[in-house]
Amino acid sequence: MKKINVGLLGCGTIGTGVAKILIENKDILLSRVGAVLNLKYVADIDLETERGIPFDDGVFISDAFKVVDDPDIDIVVEMIGGEGIAKDLILRAFDNGKPVVLLAGHGNTLFKTAGENDVDLAFEASVGGCMPIIKSLRESLVGNHIKSMAGILNGTCNYILSRSAKDGSSFEDVLAEAQKNGFAEADPTLDIEGIDTAHKLAILTSLAYGMEINFQDIYIEGISKITPMDIEFAREFGYRIKLLAITKDTGDAVEARVHPTMIPFTNPLSSVNGVLNAVTITGDAVGDMMLYGYGAGMMPTASAVVGDIVDIARNLLAGAESRIPLLSYQMDRIRKIPIRRIDEIFIHYYFRFSALDRPGVLSKISGILGNNEISIKSVQQKGRKTNGAVPIVMLTHLAREADVQKALTEILNLDVVSDRPVLIRIEDENQED
Amino acid sequence: MKKINVGLLGCGTIGTGVAKILIENKDILLSRVGAVLNLKYVADIDLETERGIPFDDGVFISDAFKVVDDPDIDIVVEMIGGEGIAKDLILRAFDNGKPVVLLAGHGNTLFKTAGENDVDLAFEASVGGCMPIIKSLRESLVGNHIKSMAGILNGTCNYILSRSAKDGSSFEDVLAEAQKNGFAEADPTLDIEGIDTAHKLAILTSLAYGMEINFQDIYIEGISKITPMDIEFAREFGYRIKLLAITKDTGDAVEARVHPTMIPFTNPLSSVNGVLNAVTITGDAVGDMMLYGYGAGMMPTASAVVGDIVDIARNLLAGAESRIPLLSYQMDRIRKIPIRRIDEIFIHYYFRFSALDRPGVLSKISGILGNNEISIKSVQQKGRKTNGAVPIVMLTHLAREADVQKALTEILNLDVVSDRPVLIRIEDENQED
Questions:
Q1: pLDDT tens for residues B271-286?
Q2: Which residue of A23, A25, A315, B206 is most buried, as measured by CB atoms within 10 A?
Q3: Minimal Cα–Cα distance from A294 to chain B, Å?
Q4: Smallest Cα distance from B299 to chain A, Å
């Protein structure tokens, strides 16, 4: 019986899930892979907490370096995460010629080192949890020019926005509840400010376009300023608000941005609710395709990790390491492609102004918009007063972000406008101009 | 520069799409694969019709056997289809040790022959067009016990049902329109009677459970009897009607059935409209996952075929043929698993009876149901009369199909029931009993 020895680093939530699958589904894995995936070591600093897994004697150890240095270990599965010891362990595994499965992307350096060492590095779980988005980009869609992708990639944000849309709860209330239920971290900044989503977008953009990406070039805006009022007005226009990761090929550059986005009910992403994730991919051949599933959680994430382990095991069994380039493109084809500055993008906008209920207000606002080349598609003055002001909501035709920012600053300076205007970008494939 | 020679058999719609991608996206394929995918031959009996592709001299030929016999051809792409010459060509390619990409499954024989010849056989395009459902089952979800799958796998049926749901048009009217627009065949039987869907379900079931499948054991019911009235009543209960391919692991057997199915609005399949396809997969680790995209059409289907070509090319380049077992399981693990007879399944039902509007009718109907162990969850007598009869609609708790069929036959014999009762099965994960 052929055997592949797996060494697992880190037995936290996801690591435990991976161990569970390898042990509990051992037989189905054997019947599909044709070799035993033997969990030789599981290393963790905490050997006390009960994981509910019947490890054989000598499997559960505290010394992670013993794992990456053991000549019998065929595949290293790094589930510790972070930039500290995890990175040292991965580099040592590469030095020892061992392929590695990762939980997170770890940026350009690791990809390069793996490529130079000619070892496999797999990271399906790093974007969209269980769903095969990385495999789709590297394999299934390999014949396509990717025109664009849009993803709901953070379950915390999607849970908050879905709850607000369902019952009108405020951001703060839903966040507090999500924290209580364990759907949000105690410090939720990385999630709600869009940073986690942007890290995932960086990986997808790299894979789609074969590019090195500077994370700082990605425009990032979180969901903390989204109010139930805007969610309700969006609904009246036929839109839902989602935190989207968006990338588009614009010919000479690539867009890569994360922000709350209004999408029409007809967009299948609009009905992705709760902690679920989804990605739509538009390719020149495939048209629109969508993947949908759990973007986090012990077992869905572990499912993706085990998929990676099997991919690498099959490569080892066939003597076919580095069968697929890590970043979807051959290393010598990875280029620096500029990311378009947010100022330069053209898009549709939703604005909400808090204006005093006086004659001439709309004329002043629309005058400034017109002077800045922004043309209005529809305007509605909503009846409800907040702090003595009336909300005026507008949808625009295509406008340039720099013009919009300039106009909004001018409008904010009007004495009839009482509060910072709200801006939400719209992605609506049904709108031409 | 490394080169892989591709021989394409059949230059109809999909074949033309494949040739287009290989030629027009040559550079992006090179940068991803690290080798030229050279379209050496395209064989078709019709060399006259303009395909809009600038083939080099000597590429476009009429002799398909020249392609499969050429020692320089590395991969054969069979886009002719059917059981005639296509099968002869495939077997000859296997004899010559060449891997083959297929458009349709061709049943158990071909899988066995490919396995015995130790050559790759790929067929991603045979189910769900562009979407990577076969790759997901063979690779991404390899660590999961598949608990169930449900798919919308026929664009013609989904177009007809979506149009009826949208505007109340009858089956006959929408079918006629679909035929006019080219969304339905002149003889639509294979599509609308569910046979095409069942062929796809057979492939998915084989891959999920590692089983040889007898096509005749799949229960098949098409959409030709679905009326706008039932679509409307379904909507009032919170359901949509879709033609679903369903497979479930029931422990000692597997369910495999194709029939019109009511699913709740909360099921993401319910919002898959028009010619789009989608599959939900429920695994013990992954939870619920969905793939969604175009299930047919020149370019989406060709995208899947090119994904297969590249998979095989990468195997050839790495010397890793037969890296993944054809049917997801190692050949010696493929078993005969019984398919549960439709009579034996337990499910929820929607019934519509055409009953005379007289006292005591409901008592007679519900008496027969009760005598057959079928308990009613809700009943509504609808006001509208058709042919002097009034529709009575019912939803049941879980009931056994054999009991239901027996009860409906008894009910049809009642003199107060004027027409064959309508039965539509319900898949509602929110209903427990």
A1: 999 999 999 999 999 9
A2: B206
A3: 7
A4: 5
Average pLDDT, integer, range A332-355: 95
Q: Write out the residue limits of the CATH 3.40.50.720 domain(s) in chain A.
A: 3-129+298-330
DSSP A144: S
Asked if A153 contacts A128 with a C-beta cutoff of 8 angstroms, the reply is yes
And the tokens for A353? 């102004």
In chain B, ranges of CATH 3.30.360.10 domains: 133-295
| Residues in Cβ contact with A157 at an 8 Å cutoff, skipping those fewer than 6 apart | A191, A192, A194, A197, A222, A223, A243
Residues B116-132 pLDDT 10s: 888 999 999 999 999 99
Q: How far apart are CA B198 and CA B210, in angstroms?
A: 17
For A290, the 3-state DSSP assignment is: strand
Which helix (H) or strand (E) covers residue A319, if one does?
none
Q: Rounded CA gap, B4 and B316, in Å?
A: 8
CATH 3.30.360.10 for the B133-295 domain, yes or no: yes
Q: Are B318 and A318 within 8 A, CB to CB?
A: yes
pLDDT single digits (tens) B281-312: 999 999 999 999 999 999 999 999 999 999 99
B200 in active site: yes
Evaluate whether B66 touches B41 at the Cβ level (below 8 Å): yes
- A 18-57 residues inside an 8 A Cβ radius of B: 21-22, 25, 28-29, 31-34
B3-129+298-329 belongs to CATH 3.40.50.720: yes
Kindly state the DSSP code that residue B143 receives in the 8-state scheme: T
Residue whose C-alpha is closest to residue A188's, from A235, A155, A149, A232:
A155
Q: Which residues have a Cβ under 8 Å from the Cβ of B14 and sit 6 or more positions away?
A: B79, B103, B125, B298, B301, B302, B305
Place of tokens 């590095």: A121
A3-129+298-330 placed in CATH 3.40.50.720: yes
Q: What is the pLDDT of residue B385?
A: 65
Q: Cα angle vertex B305, ends B300, B306, to 5°? A: 95
- Enumerate the active-site residues of A: 200
Neighbouring C-beta atoms of residue B62, cutoff 10 Å: 10
Complex-level ipTM beyond the 0.90 threshold: yes
> How many residues are recorded in chain A?
433
Cβ atoms A43, A63 nearer than 8 A = yes
CATH (residue range B344-426) = 3.30.70.260
Q: Which CATH architecture has domain A343-426?
A: 2-Layer Sandwich (3.30)
* Candidates A32, A273, A280, partner chain B, best to mutate (most B CBs within 10 A): A32
CB atoms within 10 A of CB A413: 9
Query: Per-residue pLDDT for A351 more than 70?
Result: yes
